[in-house]
Design goal:
This protein has about 280 residues and is α/β, with parallel strands linked by helices. It has twelve helices and eight strands. The protein has helices at about 10-20, 30-40, 50-55, 65-80, 95-110, 125-135, 150, 160-180, 190-200, 220-225, 240-260, 275-284, and strands spanning about 20-25, 45, 85, 115, 140-145, 180-185, 205-210, 215-220. Helix 5 links the parallel strand 3 (about 85) and strand 4.
């Protein structure tokens, strides 16, 4: 285990003040969380994107609170020191402020989260207010919000027009005023992200495909290692071809088993001759 200190909210704001960008990744399982902890990733998001990346659904909508809690618990075990954010799944907060507070509370109590994230702008300000009043740090999510992909018309750039961009600025301010400690901007033009970041006072702005001028950057872990077979978004930089390493390994495994190359002597255990002789006698 690394000897890093626990990432706290004041530590995140200190990093922002220092001008050094915050690092953030998605994560859904224990071993990946362990690696991310070793790399000292500041913020880890257990995104409901796990519905697509881990469970193979076509969208995030079927993901339940129970799915989220189980994966988040595993991530917490692998990354005890990172700032851990649980992503509120579809319909865990949209219906009422009360449902939002109760489900945010589950993330904190059952999964050991440091914060939650929810999608939406001014219309979700009362949820953010309720959650933060309950002592739970809340992150907003604007731009391409996958839970509303149907009304957004697909996975595409948001805020291209001046009016739409102005609404993003207003939404970011509404979330900040409601108490959000951070806002994620997904697939928003770079200069819109820059404006929102400049105007943020007590709020950390994170970019996912929204350019370099936010306080920090987020990538979907599966995109950065080629681990999502259905598509690779343009905004994702590939930092390693894990898909190739895994596929080559699997192909070699099949070849070695079928050709009786694996297992080799060092991969299994013997029994002493005298024990074996006795065994043969025992079974006649
Ligand atoms: O679920 C998720 O991983 C997310 C990201 C797309 C930001 O919400």
């Amino acid at each position: 285990m690394s000897d890093r200190k626990k990432v706290t909210l004041p530590a995140l704001f200190r990093k922002v003040d220092s001008g050094k960008p915050i690092t953030m990744l998605t994560c859904y399982d224990y071993p990946t969380a362990y690696f991310q902890e070793q790399a000292c990733i500041d913020m880890i998001l257990v995104g409901d994107s796990l519905g697509m990346t881990m469970l193979g659904y076509d969208s995030t909508l079927p993901v339940t609170m129970d799915d989220m809690i189980r994966h988040t618990q595993a991530v917490r075990r692998g990354a005890p020191m990172a700032w851990l954010i649980g992503d509120m799944p579809y319909m865990s907060y949209q219906s009422s402020v009360e449902s939002a507070i109760l489900n945010a509370g589950r993330f904190m109590a059952e999964a050991g989260c440091d914060a939650i994230k929810l999608e939406g702008g001014a219309e979700m300000a009362d949820r953010v207010e309720g959650i933060t009043a309950a002592g739970i740090p809340a992150m907003g999510h604007l731009g391409l919000t996958p839970q509303s992909v149907s009304s957004l018309g697909g996975f595409r750039l948001q805020g291209k027009g001046a009016l739409q961009a102005k609404k993003l600025l207003d939404d970011a301010k509404a979330l900040e005023e409601a108490g959000a400690y951070a806002v994620l901007l997904e697939l928003v033009p770079d200069r819109v992200c820059e404006l929102i970041t400049e105007r943020a006072e007590e709020c950390i702005i994170i970019s996912l495909g929204a350019g370099p001028d936010a306080h920090g950057q987020l990538l979907i872990y599966h995109d950065m290692f080629g681990l999502y077979p259905k598509f690779k978004p343009r905004m994702a930089k590939v930092f390693g071809q894990a898909d190739k390493v895994i596929q080559d390994g699997l192909n070699r495994y099949v070849e070695e088993v079928e050709n009786k190359v694996f297992p080799e002597k060092e991969h299994y255990f013997g029994i002493k001759d005298e024990e074996y002789e006795q065994l043969l006698e025992l079974i006649g």
